[in-house]
Amino acid sequence: MSSTLPTIRRADSMPAAAQDNHVPVAIVGGGACGLTAALMLHDLGVDCAVLERDGTPTGSSALSSGFIPAPGTRVQRDLGIADSSERFAADITAKAKGSAAPQLVQAYARAIGPALDALQDRHGLEWQVLDGFLYPGHSVRRMHAVPEKTGVGLMGRLANAVAAADIPLVTDAAVRELWADDTGLLLGVGYERPDGTLEHLSCDAVILACNGFGGNAAMVRELLPEMRDALFAGHTGNDGSAIAWGRALGARLADLGGYQGHGSWAIPQGALISWALMMEGGMQVNAQGRRFHDETQGYSEASVHVLAQPGGVAWNVFDAPILALARGFPDFVDAEAAGAVKHCDSVQALAALIGCDDTALAATLAGQGPYPRPGTRALQAPFCAVKVTGALFHTQGGLDIDAQCRVLDTQGRPFPNLLAAGGAARGVSGDAVWGYLSGNGLLSAVAGGYLAAYTAAHLLRPPTGSKP
After folding, report:
1. Long-range contact pairs involving 131-135 (C-beta distance under 8 Å, separation at least 24)
2. 100-118 pLDDT per residue, tens
3. Exposed end of the chain (fewer CB within 10 Å): N or C?
């Protein structure tokens, strides 16, 4: 093996073996961002290759709920939901308290609807808008999902579309090297194969769609000290390669304190419990049977609140009507089958499960305490409870990019042919955990992949398709 660390190779040309191994656009990473970019490049008549470190394209996208917020899609309009990119941008900005990059907020809010429609019209992805509840911070129903309602289902459909389009997808190809000349022009990549050999691919442009840094413990300690002891529930491929390359190239980094946490990671099952339960009137209580935050503010900041409780744990408490809603989510069904959901016929039984005083718990369930009652009604026996902790899912900071997803150097100038989106780049959550609006991760991945493809096509030649 040549090297296990991401490296910048400075040279005026690629190794001789790479001269016959050329593609116009090399995409590093086969998650939702990379596969979306590949499909859009295909539609624009630009050849590309996707390099994916794993045996199958999964990444952080497969570990997510698979829900993508988007305004103005065909399916949203067919349901009579009035929405717009301006309204969506306002929601993103409000959640981040004005700290999200305005050029990206506007670009992503405008691009995500056309991106989902293009994936539906040209590549067969079927979208449905989730009904019955609003995720924190969203003013209208705009959360889109494939019929499976899982991240695995989303990735499976994207991968099938890439295969149907006959786009080269090279798996078991961990990119270790970016080759660049002294002007910052990217010449190609070097990727490691399972047997440790290093292969090279020359190209005219590179799209970094690879990862964040949540799986790099040293970077988390350096950049996200408040989550240094948190469980990481993301993909191991989030090793910070994009940041390491950026630092070596002289790229500007941004929003490194932004991340998506989640306050509802079931233990010991290791499963995500949908925050829809909280939005429909469920509540989180600690070991004393008391609520400790306003659950409607969001699941990302809830991770910090949960970790601050005794033992770093909490209990999601809900009742039969909310259980019926939850069973509409396949991830919840799997968690329930694994034993995550406990059933209690009375307040006393629920208190015994939690290990708290039943009088204190009864007062909490009756709505007493400093926080507004979640939902519109009191929870009723029989109760359900899930033991959870706070977890780090993925980071929201990275390479600084402009509205066309071009990577910027420390002076704010774009590199000639280096693009980034998704986990590799800054997102639209600002610089803190509370800035994360539900779905921001997949928004950045899909809208960013869509925009990066159009930018790459413009770099190589005028695209034949419509502008994003």
Report:
1. 132/280, 132/325, 133/276, 133/279, 133/280, 133/325, 134/279, 135/67, 135/69, 135/275, 135/276, 135/279, 135/438, 135/439
2. 999 999 999 999 999 999 9
3. N
Collapse the DSSP code of 51 into the 3-class scheme (helix H, G, I; strand E, B; otherwise coil) and give the result: strand
DSSP code at position 260: E
Say how many CA atoms lie within 13 Å of 359 toward its Cβ: 0
Q: Are 30 and 151 spatial neighbours (Cβ–Cβ below 8 Å)?
A: no
DSSP class of 383: E
What DSSP letter does each residue of 284-323 carry, written as one string?
A: EE-TTS---S-GGG-HHHHHHHHHTSGGGEEEEEEEHHHH
- HSE-CB at 164 with a 13 A cutoff on CA atoms is 13
Q: What is the pLDDT of residues 352-392, one digit of tens each?
A: 999 999 999 999 999 998 998 877 789 999 999 999 999 99
SS3 for 427-453 is CCCCCCHHHCCCCHHHHHHHHHHHHHH
Amino acid symbol at 96:
A
Helix ranges restricted to H, 296-436: 299-307, 320-326, 330-337, 347-354, 358-365
Q: What is the largest CA-CA distance in the chain?
A: 76
Asked whether the beta carbons of 177 and 9 are under 8 A apart, the reply is yes
Q: pTM of this prediction? A: 0.91
CB 448 within 8 A of CB 421: yes
Give the separation between CA 171 and CA 51, rounded to whole angstroms. Answer: 6
Query: Are the beta carbons of 436 and 442 closer than 8 angstroms?
Result: no
Query: Helix, strand, coil shares of the chain as percentages rounded to 5?
Result: 35, 20, 40
Beta 398-399 vs 253-254: how paired, if at all?
A: antiparallel
The CA-based dihedral angle spanning residues 42, 43, 45, 46, taken in that order and rounded to the nearest 10 degrees = -40
CA distance 114 to 73: 7
88: three-class secondary structure by DSSP = helix
Phi–psi pair at 50, nearest 5 degrees: -105, 130
Q: Which residues contact 397 (CB under 8 A, 6 or more apart)?
A: 212, 223, 253, 254, 255, 256, 257, 258, 259, 426, 427, 431
Distance CA 468, CA 42 (A): 15
